[in-house]
Design a protein that fits this description.
The chain folds into two domains: 4-238 and 398-422, Aldehyde Dehydrogenase, Chain A, domain 1 (3-Layer(aba) Sandwich); 245-386, Aldehyde Dehydrogenase, Chain A, domain 2, CATH 3.40.309.10. The strands form four sheets. A seven-stranded parallel beta sheet has the order 10-9-11-8-7-12-13. Strands 5-4-3-6 form a four-stranded parallel beta sheet, sandwiched between helices. It is built from 14 helices and 16 strands. The termini are far apart. The relative contact order is 0.14. It is an alpha/beta fold.
């Protein structure tokens, strides 16, 4: 079995070797994680700055590898949304490098004292942040995850094992090579960021059952991947199944804001999980036709309920399935609702608890929506496309969690830590 950086070249390992492969990678990751947990902030930041420099220096090689991936994906009939997630260009590559530098500049959560209390008997108790340990990331299409996940894991003192999809294999290897340059330059263990060298599904199964070696699994991909991870995992999972995102336009919305917000929330990038999939318009809103017309003019197919169809002949009928669909495409479902109560009732029935937004100038309604809608991210007068760790000032994100335990919303450095109790005494005995 190959070890260290050479593993990234071992693309011909038999699928039957997957368990042995992941076991060996996990053992090395555990050793690296032990070292990273005590690594000074400056050394971790230096690794990411050097990795960013390597990405810029190797831009031609990375883009060439990506072009091959995109060409193969197109030949295999991948959807436009998946191609958009896969494709890199100079601007996206620069954003990737800048993202590494942004993470390097963030406060290090490791060692932070969350709180401290002094007991009457003189004991001093502190809760202090510590890394999770070894993080397994299973992802499809998005080569930027190789950089984002590697950076966030390392900066939060964790080792990571990355398993990218076959459609982005060349891009992932090229980006991983640049990440390792940064790790080596800072004198940190190369096993801190490992890339699984096979794309067979057996590697996923091996990661999901690697108790004691992998501490948490983060899936980033389609519904079938995430569902499989949640069904089969024997280690904790941090995930969301769907991004069924709602934008509610209230009767008191400013039309000068509502129209561009609706178009941006849906159409800026249709393949991201923060893209709006359902628009709800208050029956009392004065200009619903303008919303529909602007969406159609932007190239969006609108599927609506009966009331929406009556507003515009180009609105197609929505099926029951449309209200629970993450299109990741230039399609939106649109319903006319009875005020904020109707909107929140619709959201409660169909939301995936990812991101939901209200457009209104009525602050009381906005406050009620923000307080009562049970989603990881709730917005007022802003595009849902801001549902992104970088836009939240987190540098990047390892994913957006829609669960209620440990971390919720964009998961970045703090979300990749847990805590331990430190208890300091002076000889106290418990009576």
């Amino acid at each position: 079995m190959l070890v260290g950086a050479a593993m990234t070249e071992a693309v011909a390992i038999r699928p039957t070797d997957a368990v042995a492969l992941i076991t060996e990678m996990g053992q090395r990751a555990r050793a690296a994680a032990t070292r990273l947990a005590a690594t000074p902030t400056a050394d971790k930041a230096h690794a990411l700055i050097e990795a960013a420099r390597a990405i810029r220096a190797q831009d031609k090689a990375i883009l060439a590898a990506n072009a091959e991936d995109v060409s193969r994906a197109q030949a295999n009939g991948l959807s436009a949304a998946m191609i958009d997630r896969l494709a890199l260009n100079p601007a996206r590559l620069e954003a990737m490098a800048a993202g590494l530098e942004a993470v390097a500049a963030l406060p290090d959560p490791v060692g932070e004292t969350i709180d401290e209390r002094h007991r009457p008997n003189g004991l001093v108790l502190q809760r202090v942040r510590v890394p999770l340990g070894v993080i397994g990331i299973i992802y499809e299409s998005r080569p930027n995850v190789t950089a984002d996940a590697g950076a966030l894991s390392l900066m939060s003192g964790n080792a990571c094992i990355l398993r990218g999809g076959s459609e982005a294999s060349g891009s992932n290897r090229a980006i991983h090579a640049a990440m390792l340059e940064g790790v080596r330059a800072a004198g940190l263990p190369e096993d801190a960021i490992q890339l699984v060298p096979i794309t067979d599904r057996a590697a996923v199964g091996a990661m999901l059952t690697a108790q004691g070696l992998i501490d948490i699994i983060v899936p980033r991909g389609g519904k079938s991947l995430v569902a499989r991870v949640q069904d089969e995992a024997r280690v904790p999972v941090l995930a969301h199944l769907d991004g069924i995102v709602h934008l509610y336009i209230d009767a008191d919305a400013d039309s000068a804001k509502a129209v561009p917000l609706a178009v941006n929330a849906k159409m800026r990038r249709t393949g991201v999980c923060g893209a709006t999939e359902t628009i709800l318009i208050d029956r009392a809103y004065a200009a619903p036709n303008a919303i529909i017309a602007a969406l159609i003019a932007a190239g969006c197919e609108v599927r609506g309920d009966g009331a929406a169809q009556a507003l515009d002949p180009d609105v197609k009928p929505a099926s029951d399935q449309d209200w629970d669909c993450e299109y990741l495409d230039s399609i939106v479902s649109l319903a006319i609702v009875d005020g904020i109560d109707g909107a929140m009732a619709h959201i409660a029935r169909h939301s995936s608890h990812h991101t939901d937004a209200i457009i209104t100038e009525d602050q009381a309604k906005a406050d009620r929506f923000l307080a009562q809608v049970d989603s990881a991210i709730v917005m007022h007068n802003a595009s849902t496309q801001f549902a992104d760790g970088g836009e939240f000032g987190l540098g990047a994100e390892i994913g957006i969690s829609t669960g209620r335990l440990h971390a919720r919303g964009p998961v970045a450095l703090e979300g990749l830590t847990t805590y331990k109790w430190l208890v300091r005494g002076s000889g106290q005995l418990r009576p």
